[in-house]
Amino acid sequence: MHAPQPVGIQAERPGAVDAVAESDAQPEFRQGAADDWVVVVPVKPAAAGKSRLTVAGIDRTALARAIARDTIDAAAQTPGVAHVVVVTDDTDAVATVPSAPAAPVTVVADPGGGLNAAIAAGMAAHTHRARAALLGDVAGLRPEELAAALRDARAFDRAVVPDAEGTGSTLLTAAEDVEWASRFGPDSFERHRRLGATALEFDAASGLRRDIDTAAQLDELGEQTVGPRTATLLRAARRGDTAPAPTARLRLREMRADDLEDMAALLGDPEVMRYYPAPRTRAQAAEWIARSRQRYAADGLGLWVMEDATGRFVGDCGLTWQPLGDRRVLEVGYHVTPPLQGLGYAAEAATACRDLARSLGFGVLRALVHPDNAASARVAQKVGMHRDAAESAAAGITVMRMAL
Fold it and tell me: How many domains does the chain have?
C-alpha cells in the first residue's frame, strides 16, 4: 500500500462565450447523426454547492462531491460518449474518475456567470460535435439510461429530458452542426422547449430525471440506486461506522486515538515497512490515524484496525483512494504485525474489503505493490487479482487489478 499524494489536474480557462438568443424554433427530425458524444457536466465547488442537502451523519461537502463524482463516472462509462468535459473550480471533484474502461475526462475552469455560462465554456472547443449538457447531481444515473437518451436524441437538432417534477431539465442535447444554447434555471424544461428542443420520454423514476438538491430527494432514491461513492457515505451514516462486516476470525473497526501504541509499533517496525522509504515515527503514526479518520468522513472508507476474536491487535486493512498516474484508484491495502504474519489474516481482511467494495457498486479494485514485495502480491492474488502489465509498466510498480 502506498501513502496518499495529491493529484494535480490541469484546468484551462476559456474565453467568454456569448449566449445564443432564445427562439421559437420548431424541432427538426434528423437521420444518421453522429454518436460520439461530448458530454459537458457543470459542477459547483462542493463547499459552496448543495446548501439544502443536509443529511444527518454526512459531511455536506463530501456528499456533494460524491454525487458529482458518481454522475461524472456514469457519463464516462456510457456507450457512445467519446469525451466528458467537467466545468468546475473544484478539480478534486473528478479525482476518483474515470475508472476504466471510460471516456476521457477533462476539466475546464468555471468562467463565472452561472450555470449556462459554465456549460457554454465547456462546449466552446467542441462546436462540430454532437453535444450534451448533463447536470452534475444525478446521483442515480445509470450509463444505460444516458446511452438510451443520447441514442434517441440523435434524431433531433435539439432534445431535452425533464426532471422528475417536469419543470426543470437534467439533460439537453444539440446535434453536431447546431449552435449551442441552454436555458437551465427555473422552468428550464419549458424554456428549452421554446428553443426548439424535443422532449425525450423517460419514466419519472429514471435516475436520469432525478437531480438531487435535498435530503428528501436523496432518500427517495435510496442507498441501493445511487452511485457507489454516494452509496458509501449513505451506508456509513446508516450504520454509524464505515468498516466491513466481521469475518470468521477478524473484526475490522475504525481507528481511534487510543490505537496509537499499536499503530506506532506496527508502522515503526522495519520488517512491516520494508518496502516504504522508512519506518514511521510515533508522530507519523498519529498522523496515519488522523488521516484515516478524515477518510471515513470524506469517503466513507479508509484503513481499519484488524482485531482477532480476543481483541488482540492484528494490523490494519482497508479501502483507500490512491494516486495512479493522473487519477486516483480504489485500492485495498494491508499491514500485519510480524508475530501474526503468514496466518492468512491479510487475505481474510482484504477479501472482506473486496466484498464491501463490490456490494457498494464499485467496478474495479486494485492493490499497488512494490515490485519486490512478493508476499503482498500473493495476498492480492488470493483476493482474486491479477497483475496488470500495462498499468504496472506505466507506474513502475506492480499493479494488481480485478473487476468487481
Answer: 2
